[in-house]
Records
---
Amino acid sequence: MGFRSIALPLLAMLLLDSSLIAQGFRVNLIHPAKEAMRRKGVKRSEAIRALVAKSHARVRWMAARANSSSWSSMAGTTDVESPLHPDGGGYVMDISVGTPGKRFRAIADTGSDLVWVQSEPCTGCSGGTIFDPRQSSTFREMDCSSQLCAELPGSCEPGSSTCSYSYEYGSGETEGEFARDTISLGTTSDGSQKFPSFAVGCGMVNSGFDGVDGLVGLGQGPVSLTSQLSAAIDSKFSYCLVDINSQSESSPLLFGPSAALHGTGIQSTKITPPSDTYPTYYLLTVNGIAVAGQTMGSPGTTIIDSGTTLTYVPSGVYGRVLSRMESMVTLPRVDGSSMGLDLCYDRSSNRNYKFPALTIRLAGATMTPPSSNYFLVVDDSGDTVCLAMGSASGLPVSIIGNVMQQGYHILYDRGSSELSFVQAKCESL
């Protein structure tokens, strides 16, 4: 969820129990917008307006930090998983922290690194589950002199020996204490796998995270879940995002050998290694984006991000995509400006209307998503759809958001710096 502005040394290797080798994890991803609609009776148009605003805010925040620096990574093999559910424009997973363990619903985010849960004493918690370090027998404070502490912004208060942090996102922030405790994730055999001495944030002052208990950073920086557990999960994880408007479906977030893709049509593209400029993000090369076979331009370096809702491309490319869609789509136009969207249509007269094909040409691979991945339903009736894209103005990279990723099983192999994907029925994995 953001560019960092600090120089970070290489993380010391996290020691993991050798019994984790050759096992497997599974985590289920959950969708926030739908959960909010169920809890509060919110109209879909209002929920979409809120998630689009968050998506735009995230991109503005990324743009403001686009010239910053730096993170790195650290180093078994285990199969774990967690269910992913759509929620508020992102996807939420389950994670347990402490001994005895308490379960938290946390946003799964490939665009940030810190793993944190809301904690006592809390002045900015949004209900739900709150972690109390005093109740965990495995909780240990982290000293300011720790190398891991130095990886986070605001890592030490003057005169204090306890590691603290202040971490910002596009539409929120968290402040608290950086510590160590045992975390647990589900396994592919319906069990639970514990990881002791995991570096986790205890968020005591949080904003912008209503309806969830925290956030799990899956980025390439050293404090992320995937970096801290890299030896145990063979540096691999995968997910398959169900429809963002689904009310009940979930899909697994998989780690280790179980993250492998299956079936025909698997494609792969290289992930650019992390750098001082882009230490956290998974960067791909997009050579072109086409509408109905006609190339609109090259987005170039592109982040693939589970925490951004929309897809953003350079303003010139975006303008040509808009013009091409406008010239080809024959449905009645609808004003989507109140939701922050530029191109909306009323499809009530033809729910099966075939929109122009959109193609994303990656280096060595091609993504041809269904129109539901780029025309998003924005009202409860299902009559109004809007182009789920925007201009990456001010940002030196493009972004493939989570709506565009729906219905693809996507594997991140950090060991080989490769991202692979295949279309799949996510709810059936």
---
Amino acid sequence: MGPEGKKLMNIIILGLGFMLMFTAFQTCGNIEQTVLKSFNSTSFHASGYTSMAIIYGVFSASNLLAPSVVAVVGPQLSMFFSGLLYSGYIAMFVYPYTWSFYTASVLVGMAAAVLWTAQGNVLTINSTDQTIGRNSGVFWALLQFSLLFGNLYIFLAWHGHVHISDKDRQTVFISLTVISLVGCFLFFLIRKPNPDAEGDPGHPSEALQVDSSDSALRSPGSDLCRQAVDAFVQACKLLATKEMLLLSCSIAYTGLELTFYSGVYGTCIGAMTRFGQDAKSLIGISGICIGLGEILGGGVFGMLDKCNRFGRNPVVLLGLVTHYVAFYLIFLNIANDAPLAPEEGTHLRAFMEPSVGVALLCSFLLGVGDSCFNTQLLSIIGFTFRDNSAPAFAIFKFIQSILAALAFFYSNFLLLHWQLLILVLVGLLGTLTFFTAERLAQASWQDSDYDSI
């Protein structure tokens, strides 16, 4: 296999590992508030929204240190050990206790920072200026297949269930834990990329290390501490650059929108008693529709690379318009108190007779719009900060996660219409600032042979 084929295979393995891990974790996040409402009749009293707020809050605080961890440990082991903590969080739901629930939330928040920084590093060192767009789309599409399989299982397992029993919960979360662990071990199949034809054929199984062109390097001895400090300093410097400040608004929007589609919207659908006794199982179908939208967006704007003549701006604008259509339909279709409704659900209606078809269409549109924003952000960050990929992707996740934490916090008390208004305003601001950042990137393209996606 040639150098480019080897790099593409690494991207595919990376995507498959994340697909399995997040088949478990995203499904967990999608259903945990509904599960905990059914479980709160015992001595256990906790909120899924609060847990996710803790995860993303710790995630954001940990991101500035994550490049140092990746520099010392290396991206492969960083992803593996982080994945084990994800698996532990999911396994906790088999026999949940309040203390273990919130402790696991803190641990998975720290793990997430390291995991996503290492992912961005691996994506960058296995890409060139010409392939970063394609590889971003390949990874994103494979990752979003995770929304299909776990949510399909939820639909089949919970079809017709009004209440989630202990047996239902345990069966689901044991299965999800096993799936997550398989994804962790897949990371060991990623091999060191060989950028030229002069690689050593006698060592095809050499484990992945960070490429020497990247700032997050592995080396033995006393250099490790210096590299850890350098990685932290570099992350702080990148945070203050004009390009990152402009992109921060777009990244912030993806954090708010992540909270909405991965936690709040599924809870809203499950609380709509007007959808009938299948409202709980519709959470799984909603997740599948989101996944289909994510995969479609990742495929069209990444793998197929159809927009290379027009740049990133049309894709981001399409994402905003798609989201606005979804928000308007949700406003009309879902009751305002649905995010805060008790286990028995809400009997209120919105401005139209609630429709399951409209609700699932909105799920699909949320997925398409989210993929538009994220594939373009992965691409522009990977190109603009190519020589400092680990710190740059750490900042990406720092901003995204702190806004996600804020959104999960206010989801405990803000009604649906207020949440939608926040998304509309921040989405508009993020799109405008992205356009400016893209204009700066286009200026740099004049001195390179990079093809935009």
